[in-house]
């Protein structure tokens, strides 16, 4: 069973000619089949956690370990992490000029699976996955994220999640900028992947709204660069009612 | 790249749509067109038509100091049966009918060449194989002139392939009879030190179709002037271009489509990729719709993909409209860069770095390459693109 173990993770970023520590000792274990929601106020370091796990060059790991099935993730390049089974659904997916969605998906699937998917079954697989996400087939011929609406970008991220079948999915504010219909469609996509029981999910969000559609097993409050409280789904209800105020103060004094 | 424009440091892109009684396209040249080099002062670099070009790298083509050496280029023409291939003297009446030199180097080429090549496809002759003109640089200085003429309703594909090392100023005339169809692929695959300057004039007959691919990879400095005018109504021009500008290279394409005749079409699409320190690409796209050119339909676009820091693009589309009675007119220019975020996005989906670059560049050029329709040239271009990319990784 796949397990992602994050131990005492410290991460810095260079900004304005100064080094700033964003993550200050994150500990978290996510097992295959589990869904963990990470909730926190803006600027708490949630997205830094997501991008650090994926290997974004902007972030420097100063100490700590990240293991996926015992393998040292921090030693891997960005593409190696993806091939090892990590997937990051990005908050702001990047436009890639000149590369069509269909070409991108196939190249990616080939890299992840280690061989090119058979063309006939692949076309069907993509078509069906797109239908489930209410995506127009014409979408496949557009350039990656170019001119996509916010909702289209997020659906495209979840389409990749469904096709690439990672061991660990990190969803970084996938709910942000979505209207209720788009949120439902995207959440259903995530749930289809979760229901296979083969993926561990790290759901990073500012709002509790998405948790009505995607039920977490564990909820963690993230503040001041670390997890400050962990609990079950009931913790989300508490945040819904009380907000982050208590944690923001607590995080600052800690 | 659509509307999302992302300008790297050093890139400029400017454009204008002018509605003018007088043509600024013509008047902003520093001297009127002429076949005589003496009619053009030696450029000093601040003229509108020279301001992007490093004159010192022209090796004397612009100031009369580059003297033909006799071992400049070797030209080899292979044509299928039915085509006439001739080498003629300067006084041959078929030379210079498609257009007049518009700058000092084009006039220098016209004033200095000794023999011209003339390739003629007789009327109603439809070729199934391309005409291939190999221009191989032997290391010296050369001036040249090439005429390619298609009679009425003739159809041909011509590949002009430039390789080796030379300092070359050469003009090409394409003369298309009524209803003729000509596809031209001009490949500038020079060695690193070559200098190549030329004016390509196309005169498109009534209902004729001219399709041109200008492909520039090599050379230290390449500066080409593809120009189109129409001899009758119903003419169509498709001008495609592809360049891959490496570190230290200067590649400049200056186009003019002169809609001087009613009911003609033009479509311009040039795409370039740049990589490396001091790679410099210049694209000037002038489209002039003259007052009498009612029913004109034109579109031009230039796209640039900047792969690394240190490269510079100057892209200037310029559409000038003297009549409102047209079907359509538009232009677009965008310079985007392949940046670390794009690389991260692709790699985060398992795609290795070199594969990610290849994916982006091949995708960027694919729609152009596929339109060439000459299989061995398409394959060679794709291989060349791969080679350029490999060089950048190494």
From TrEMBL, chain A:
Residues 4-249 form the ABC transporter domain. GO terms for molecular function: ATP binding; ATP hydrolysis activity. Coiled coil: none annotated. Keywords: ATP-binding, Nucleotide-binding. InterPro entries: AAA+_ATPase (IPR003593), ABC_transporter-like_ATP-bd (IPR003439), FeS-cluster_ATPase_SufC (IPR010230), P-loop_NTPase (IPR027417). The keyword Ligase does not apply. PROSITE patterns: ABC_TRANSPORTER_2. Pfam families: ABC_tran. Belongs to the ABC transporter superfamily. Ycf16 family. This is Fe-S cluster assembly ATP-binding protein. It comes from Streptomyces echinatus.
From TrEMBL, chain B:
GO terms for biological process: iron-sulfur cluster assembly. InterPro entries: Fe-S_cluster_assembly_SufBD (IPR055346), SUF_FeS_clus_asmbl_SufBD_core (IPR000825), SUF_FeS_clus_asmbl_SufBD_sf (IPR037284), SUF_FeS_clus_asmbl_SufD (IPR011542). SUPFAM superfamilies: Stabilizer of iron transporter SufD (SSF101960). Residues 137-364 form the SUF system FeS cluster assembly SufBD core domain. Coiled coil: none annotated. Belongs to the iron-sulfur cluster assembly SufBD family. This is Fe-S cluster assembly protein SufD. It comes from Streptomyces echinatus.
